[in-house]
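Bumping with the actual sequence this time:
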Amino acid sequence: MTTVVIRMSSLATVPAKQTLLYQLAGACVLLFPMAVLLHQTDFTVTPILLFSLGYQVFILSFVAFLLWFWLLRHYQASRIGVLSFMTPLFGVLLGLCCCMSRWNRALSPGPYWLSPGWCLSAGPGGSARA
């Protein structure tokens, strides 16, 4: 949904940094009142919390979104849409690397379940629709 809004609005012409600012500000405006309403405002500061928060803020929110918005500005959404279907696979592979785990049989069906999305987003002939 965010991709459609960005591509169909004036956000398609603004720099990726500005789009990122709007995205994060909108998330804060929506999520902070929900946290208060649901009584989710208590927390204990621990090293794991600080590491997780740093990862979420600097890697996911900043680097990944900035890269995504830059891609949306420079390429057609239909051509980079396949990356959305690859995200779960990247997540599993990164988790395996970070946790120093081994691939097991339970993970094997995952790529097969994702392949219809890859094929649909690539379209006929194996290339993305314009």
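The tokens above came from a reply further down the thread. The chain has two domains: 1-74, 77-130.
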